[in-house]
Amino acid sequence: MAFEQIIFYFFSAMVLLAGVMVITARNPVYAALFLVMAFFSSSALWLLLEAEFLAITLVLVYVGAVMVLFLFVVMMLDINLVALREGFMRYLPVGALVAISVIAMMTMVVGPEFADFPIPERKGPEYNNTAELGRILYTEYVYPFELAAVILVVAIVAAIALTLRRRPMVRKQNPDQQVSVRKEERVRIVKMDVEKR
Amino acid sequence: MIEFISSLGLPAAVETVVIILVKAVAILAPLLLAVAYYTFAERKVLNYFQARVGPLHIGPRGLLTPIADAIKMLFKEIIIPTGANRFLFLLAPLLAFGPAIAAWAVIPFDYDLYATDINAALLYVLALTSFSVYGIIIAGWASNSKYPFLGAMRSAAQVVSYELAMGFALVGVIMAGQSLNLREIVIAQQGGIWMWFWLPLLPLFVIYFISGLAETNRPPFDLAEGESEIVAGYQVEYSGISFGLFFMAEYANMILISLLTSLMFLGGWLSPFEGIPNLEEWFAWVPGVVWLLLKTAFFMLLFLWVRATFPRYRYDQLMRLGWKVLIPITIAWLVILGGAIVAEVGPWFD
Question: Using one digit for the tens of pLDDT, what is the confidence trace for B132-146?
Fold first, then answer.
């Protein structure tokens, strides 16, 4: 068990360190990269809990897709973080209030019942977290799950509808037309007799 | 080998580490050799396509060319541009190379020949291939130069788009194989060449390979490099072995995609003659890993063949192909596949 504890404390420290660095890093690109590091470390912690599906999905979705787009934007925008920090002291009380209420809520949700939560038992190598998750999601929680899917679709449609704008003056290529071009429309083959020099 | 290590009587923790190291070397050494000779094969194959002879002079028939290339790269100076972000500039090649190598940990080579056998192997591979784009993005940004940055931006958008098509194609494989475990997916394809997933999943098979071309930034989707417009894209400022790592990562990824395609759609280590009288017995002595490598070699050749044949896509065409052609086809086929599995359409899903 000792080795596992070392790994646990190592990655917990990494999560905390990366989390602090996300806020304090001067360079926004560094901040985004530290966020990636935090995702990786928490995924390692989930692996320790035998939740391999969640761990890998965290890397796949957040690191592989969300943070790539995030970095994309951060790199292009050239944000000046010093200017963003100017009102730090002024907003500090509000921030502290939000932090305290979040901590209070979390203790209310997970606190009393789980204060002496027993250490979860190892399930052994045959345990398949992915299959278990799938079984529960598609049987017991199938309606909430489908509902979440519908909400996501609505959000996607709304996001696309918000960015959709028609620009009538823009010339566009129509790839279907381009692809369906026939030789006869473009090429004229001219037959000529060979001329004497 | 493992028995030999256990017979040494090392402490348990040391023994575990030694066994892991031996496994890693057993996979990495052939892989790096394959990468080196894949670059050589690419030059030769492309040259034959164009009626030229290719590298000839170093070693017999030019066979030592990749070794000479490796030595040249190792001894060249690494130049760091003045305006570059030094730390990230040097980190980027490692971020490109690391995932390309780490993904190999979960690949099964035969029924009982694998380094690790994890439940979510397919997801693991997908996560790591999606991570390899970080090397390119960071390289483009850290170079602090215009062409690398343009290359990085192109690559980021391209990889995220094609990852969706690739992921959907993999969902089809998972549905047909009823597992996320690569070994179980191959085992589910048992029963001869018509049982392999290339037939019931034909559109997904083609789309997976096309997305594989785009994920590895290979022609005709190599807009991240695009030498006729942005010189060499994200690699412009890199020299010596820091460039070499990008180069090796690209080829390792190509081999990985070829291997995964043959594992998921062409029955992996299963013999193509299974279920055919006579032929099956004649070829029964061939070890499974040989079949797997033959199938992989075919897809590796296909990578080069595509490069020799097709011109580069325009960027808007690339995006259109990914979002408007490949993704709708995969989604439609997933619905059909789901129906086929529920209806137990034979001979694959009964």
Answer: 888 888 888 888 888
